[in-house]
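Example record

One chain of 341 residues, shown exactly as stored in the release files.
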Amino acid sequence: MASASPLEYLFSIGREHRLTDPAWRALRATDPLATVFHEDGWLSALTASWSYYRLEWLVARDPGGLLIGAMPIIRSRRYGLSQCLSLPYGAPGTPLATNDTVRGALLAAWWRMAREPLVVRAQATLFLPPGFPPIGDGDGWPASHRSVETTQLLDLSPGFDRIWSDVFDGGIRRSCAKTERDGVTIHADALPESVATLDRLYRAQAGAWRNHTPFPERFLAEVVQRLPESATVWRAVHAGQTIAAQLVLVDRTVGWSWISPNTAEGKRLRAPTLLYRHVIEDLARRGLRWFNFGGSRGNPALEEFKSSLGGRPHDLPTGRVEAPWFRPLHRLQYRLRGIRE
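Predicted structure tokens for this chain:
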């Protein structure tokens, strides 16, 4: 690890089980790396939906006790063993801080936590927008435990009219026109019945997704209820039936496509294409900077589809630690639960 900066001696790193400090809200409001996944609504939806999830914090405080940085961690504790996830399901748990020295120290503290004896698995994913400088030089994470998760981002700054004419390929524009002629309409709201429909479509598809453990049934409803200003269910409807849906989360600069299930009829009518078109138009007109399509789970056809909508690969730095003896046990658990790898 690089030698400590003098600034590092002006603060301390600790762990806390609750963080109600007003300074945390100030960090969320000012740090350019803050996302919807740092919001209390998202974090409380996780702990309300998984009985074995506990929220913990790595915190940095100055000598007067003022909060100057924090990193949320979900600890999944079972049978006396822990997994430390920042955050589950690949959501970024990037530490927020008043400066990069503090941010780097929080990442180094996460690495120390990941190597504790009763921690069998730990993962941290960071979202650094394009052009944002790397945080340190790995901050104590050895190369063997560093990797990237790849998502696809669309730059919304040109505005939707230019995205429609210059970024979407011609096939996308023709597909949207045909889908509209076929009578597909788009609806956006956060009504309980829309959330229930989204959940039903998700459960019909989730079993076929690779390396994906299905959410508890209450999770999507908890997210939408606890993030009333940030979560919207978008639906493509044909002949009175929802044939494709998408849960979109927003923060100050990014719109996140969290899940986007569809049906065979939706695929036939290319409803997901029209759905994405309306989501992207809405986010661009609201002045957001990026649309995050999410990863493609190793599916080349899905990656190509997102590329046709302007999605460009973007790497998310990831730290991952797993006890060697736990890895085969974890994979066996996946197989017994019918989860595809």
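Notes: Confidence is low (pLDDT under 50) at residues 1-6.
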